[in-house]
C-alpha cells in the first residue's frame, strides 16, 4: 500500500498544485490531509498565492481519494467549500500489516499528549510544520512537514508511506527523513 501525506497547506494555491503534482507522481492510492487546509490562521502570515476557494476546487477533484482531519485553523465554513469530510479530530487507518495509522493534526494529540496507541502504531500529524519520521520505541512518530510554511529552516515537503517505509520528501525529490514501520 502506498499513501501520500500533506499538511498545513494554509490556502496556498501554488503549494497545493505542487502537492497534487507530487501525489500523482507518487502513484499513491490515497491522499491524506493532516489539517490546516484552507485558512492561514492568525499566527501565520498570509501565504503568497493565498486562494482558499481555488484550493478547495482543486482538492475537490480528489474527494474520492482523500482522507482528511481537522486542523486548528479549519472550521465549519471551510467544510462548506470542501466535498470531503474535514471536521474529524482524528481518523484511524488499518494497514495490511495490522498496524494502525492514527491521523490527527497535532494540536490535540501529539508526542506530548498521546492518543491510545498499541505497539507498532504510527502517530501521524502536522501542525508543527517540521518533518519527522522516527521510531519512538513503542510507536512511530510521523510529520510530513508543511508544503506552504515550512519552519525550523526546513524546505516545503510532503510524506509518503511505501510498503513499510515512511519518508518525508522535498518537492525537489530529496528524502529529508525516513524510517521503517
TrEMBL record:
UniProt xrefs under Gene3D superfamilies: 3.60.21.10
Cofactor: a divalent metal cation
Residue ranges of domain Calcineurin-like phosphoesterase in the record: 1-162
PROSITE patterns found in the cross-reference section: UPF0025
Pfam families on file: Metallophos_2
Class of this enzyme: hydrolase
Keywords: Hydrolase, Metal-binding
Keyword Glycoprotein tagged: no
Keyword Heme: no
Superkingdom, natural source: Bacteria
GO molecular function annotations of the record: hydrolase activity; metal ion binding
E.C. number: 3.1.4.-
Family statement drawn from the similarity comment of this UniProt entry: Belongs to the metallophosphoesterase superfamily. YfcE family.
UniProt protein name: Phosphoesterase
